[in-house]
Amino acid sequence: MSLFGRLCQLPLSPAMIKAALPLWGKVWATLAEAGRGLTIAVIMATVLETALSIGSLYAIKLLVDAIGASLSGAASQSAVFWALGFTGVALLLSVMTASWANYLRTRQGMIVSDLIDRKIHARAIEVDYSFYESPRYFDSLQKAREAGTQRPAQVVGNVLALARGVIVLGAILVMLAAIEWRLLPVLLIMVGLALIVRLHFTRQMFDWRMKRAQLERRAGYLDWMLTSNVHAKELRLNHLGAHFSAIYAGLRGQIRTEHLALERRRLIAELGVAAVASAIFIGTAGYLISLALAGALTVGQVVLFVLLLRRAEGSGNEAVSSLSRLVDDHLYLGRLFDFLDTKPAIVAQSAATMPLKLTSGIRLENVSFLYDGAHQPAVDRIDLELKPGQIVALVGENGSGKTTLIKLLTRLYDPTQGRITLDGRDIRNFDPIAYRSLFSVIFQDFAMYPETVGENIRYGNVALPGGLDEVRKAALQAGADSFIQKLPRTYDTPLTKLFDDGHDLSLGQWQRVALARSFFPRAEFIIMDEPTSAVDPAAEFELFENFRERLDGRGALIISHRLSTVRQADYTYVLADGRIKEHGTHDELVTRDGAYARLFSQQAKHYQ
């Protein structure tokens, strides 16, 4: 695309400025939320800074005039010193005001940055779970982060800097015109060239940064993988460290090469503009000196013109830079607010009140779910019941759709076909947060928080009282209290090696801590996805020997490959290829001599 075509894409035309107004409205709303009074103070300080900057220029003009008048005998020497004092005061006030304005802008930037961080975190929590399972989420978050949390505050500073640069430049042009107006077009050419180059490369840099989002994300993941403890064992045993390090170096090299190529092109263009500006300055100065030698100008006028010309160049560059940053802000803030404007699709479709006491429980009726981009449904026409106080087992091979069913039950997804009801009412009528409070879930890939044992258990529901008695009760129910008591600080032991006094657990011990986390809330149903996959047979037997008493009247859905775990379930569903193949009690399924019976017989051979 041509340079003119790229410039036409920038938000400078009246139509594009009008289209950008909603974005600037969001910026102002954000700044007002961070502190309307502070924003007004920043504006006032910047206006005063601009006025004093112009005043200091005018004071310099008065000083030069006083010196010229004194040399010609038209004024006394005292007038020169009075003008010098006035100039010194103006310059001092200008510096003090600039420092005060910078402090206010820094303060506003920090406050707005924290506010945007909170907004990004809040939106990341609120968006649908499915958003996390697509590159679109990570790219949009990367682009929102790329925008920078301080940009909304920078917009005000850049707008004011642009206004200040334009006003100061205008005042200088007026003073220059009074000396030699024929040189003004030359000065405008200098500013125009700088503007074109800056805006052109602002757009190019933005386009490149948008394209590199996935490269940056992959490089960041490799860096985390190489330096964290998650993959440390396999990296060493399988000699993968150098391999992944080479991939990381290649990605960083690609990013660096592309970035430096763009910076080189910008450097060459800016050097060209600087060379033209220097030639114009030398030519202008030579022309003015020739006028002075011919008696058409005084030495004071030449000195003043040269000072103003250099100041005009600086003000022009400030205006150009500010406009370039505003264009940059506009491009990036669009990505930031696009992310912040993302709305969850899983919301309450009516204001139904959650039942105080469940009667019939949860029922899946002809439920199917198809992932975005998939050709086959993950679960297909599922009918399943989960009654209060009932223990239900779900058996199936990996990839059969068990975890998808958990996500549908807890309304992390909505079915693409069929419906899920709670006491006969569609769960889409309930507030998702209130509905999800019915469940306490331990996933197969459970979280291991770098906090104390007690906090790891209390994270089952941080809204509940987190006293030691409640936490220990959950640990006892999960069979975790015995090894927790042997830790250096028992329930206050940090479970991480990232910090001092931390302690590591085995995977099986971690799983029992996570199980305790699922027991901690008094939820109606506990969902357990392979809850004993990492524990030894003795610990598994101890947990399920009196499992019904541990549930204390709660319902449970147990997903497990180990049929010894699910044997005591009240009712069992066998899932294969996303569909329910069999269902019934353990005895009924064994008698039916189907898939469940074959799987049970295969596992029983190992214990005969």
Would you kindly provide a written description of the structure presented here, covering whatever features stand out?
By secondary structure, the chain is α/β, with parallel strands linked by helices. Helix content is 63%, strand content 9%. The chain contains 21 helices and 10 strands. The strands form 2 sheets. It has a 6-stranded mixed beta sheet with strand order 6-7-8-3-9-10, sandwiched between helices. Helix 9 packs antiparallel against helix 10 (299-340) and helix 20 crosses helix 21. The termini are far apart. The relative contact order is 0.07. Mean pLDDT is 79; it is low at 1-11.
Secondary-structure blueprint:
Elements: H1 3-8, H2 14-72, H3 77-126, H4 135-147, H5 151-180, H6 184-211, H7 213-227, H8 232-237, H9 241-293, H10 299-340, E1 362-369, E2 379-386, E3 391-396, H11 402-409, E4 417-422, E5 425-426, H12 432-436, E6 439-442, H13 453-458, H14 468-478, H15 481-484, H16 507-519, E7 525-529, H17 537-545, H18 547-551, E8 555-559, H19 563-566, E9 571-576, E10 579-584, H20 586-592, H21 595-604
Parallel strand pairs: 3-8, 3-9, 6-7, 7-8
Antiparallel strand pairs: 1-2, 1-4, 4-5, 9-10
